[in-house]
Write a structure and sequence with these properties.
By secondary structure, this protein is of the alpha+beta class. The protein is about 30% helix and about 30% strand. The protein contains eight helices and twelve strands. A seven-stranded mixed β-sheet has the order 2-1-6-7-10-11-12, with helices on both faces. A three-stranded antiparallel β-sheet has the order 3-4-5, with no helix packed on it. Strands 8-9 form a two-stranded antiparallel sheet. Strand 3 and strand 4 form a beta hairpin. Helix 6 packs across helix 7.
Length: about 300
């Protein structure tokens, strides 16, 4: 399972996190959550996406004559009607990079900044701090998250945060999506997890009205106390079940399988660093104090 965070030639990742270092150890970690503009800048997610028609060569056309009477021709380019490409400028090379192809007339680009503004407008908290943000698949996808004001208690002691997460694709394959989940998103894996465990979710097609109807989205995302109570009950059940270190080691191997014949030093070093980080969370993290050596602690170590 890969994180799919964009990595540039200097080895740095296009990701931002407030306070907590993610398991992949990429990106920028700030001591406190920052505003949306700064979060997108730190995550290198403040790029602009363009939409342009696909063009094809339709032969040559005469544009003039040389002094000795020879024709001067140039390629005649024709727009492919109803067929568009999305692209952005690469953050290092400055060259255009295609993100999506074969898009229709009704596909409307929603910029990353607009997606975050839409998420914050849903909660009527414009400019509120962003918890995490990241670029996936070399710019084809993006996510950002912010903490919601209320969480739940597990076992009466462990506060569980709730996040609103916005994600979207620029390749025509992923709609603008807003989820409410207890999973803190730091990569593609945790984004999938958060969406699979979402308390509520809404998807919005990339059309001209993509970010227009806030009220419909708010109704679709309504989180009731029943949602929270159901999660708290499931979490309490995990807290009551013991989980050994050997079982945790097996869980790591299942979540991040490594081929037996892997010899790549970089891969092996990354596996070792990730395993050390996970065991440090499992054994020493303050957030595990209330439920150490339980299935709840294992889940939190993996998610963190």
């Amino acid at each position: 399972m890969s994180h799919e965070i964009e990595i540039l030639s200097d080895g740095t990742g296009s990701f931002y996190s407030a306070r907590e270092t993610p398991w992949h150890r990429l990106g920028v970690v700030m001591p406190e959550a920052v505003g949306p503009g700064e979060a997108l800048r730190l995550a290198r997610a403040d790029y602009v996406v363009f939409k342009s028609p696909v063009r094809y060569a339709a032969g040559a056309e005469l544009v003039g004559m040389t002094g000795d009477g020879k024709p001067i021709e140039q390629t005649r380019w024709v727009d492919h009607e109803g067929n568009y490409t999305t692209w952005r400028t690469h953050p290092e090379t400055g060259l255009p990079v295609a993100l999506g192809k074969g898009l229709g007339d009704d596909y409307t680009v929603v910029q990353n900044t607009e997606a975050v503004e839409f998420m914050q407008a849903l909660m009527d908290v414009s400019g509120a701090p962003i918890e995490t943000a990241g670029v996936l698949y070399d710019g084809r996808q993006f996510f950002a998250s912010m903490k919601m004001p209320e969480g739940v208690q597990v076992g009466g002691v462990d506060p569980v945060d709730t996040y609103m997460i916005v994600s979207k694709g620029h390749d025509g394959r992923r709609a603008l999506t807003v989820d409410i989940s207890h999973v803190r998103v730091v990569c593609k894996n945790t984004l999938d997890w958060a969406q699979g465990q979402a308390l509520s979710s809404v998807k919005i097609r990339h059309t001209k009205n993509a970010v227009a109807n806030l009220e419909d989205a708010r109704r679709a995302l309504d989180v009731t106390f029943a949602n929270q109570d159901a999660f708290a009950h499931e979490a309490d059940e995990l807290l009551a079940q013991r989980f050994t270190t050997a079982e945790f080691e097996t869980l790591i191997a299942q979540v991040w399988p490594v081929r037996e014949n892997t010899t790549n030093k970089r891969t092996l070093a990354a596996v070792e660093a990730r395993t050390e980080h996970l065991f440090r969370l499992w054994t020493d993290a303050d957030t595990q104090e209330a439920g150490r050596q339980t299935k709840w602690a294992a889940l939190n170590a993996i998610v963190e």
